[in-house]
Amino acid sequence: MKIAVTCENMEINGLVPKTFKDSEYLMIIDADKNQIFKIYGKQDPDNMVFAQKVLDHDCEALICGPLEKEPFELLAGAGVTRYNGSGHKVQTAYDKMNRYQLDWIADYIGGPGAFGHSHTGACECGEEEN
Fold first, then answer.
1. What does the pLDDT read at residue 124?
2. Best label site of 27, 30, 35, 92, fewest CB within 10 Å?
């Protein structure tokens, strides 16, 4: 099984950036061997190449910061689970994911929310109105 993690540098103790778009590097981790398999540097401003690399390596999950619409839809459409590891060191975020302690990224930045959820009318979800 492979897990992708975005990072500010090429180090396992580097931080997962604030957003997917801010990511300078993408690490592919071989979870079965518990080691970094491959590292890619930023190749485009929106990191669509990173999103495609996640698919190319058949990663089951991506640990990153919130995503913009286009990469989110590509990854979600392929069934890649997205976890918010923003602000954590790569190793810490990876460990938290394995212990089910990272929040799931349910929608893209500015999107309607999980399953088209939006705040129109009476809502009891606990989120603030936009």
1. 47
2. 35
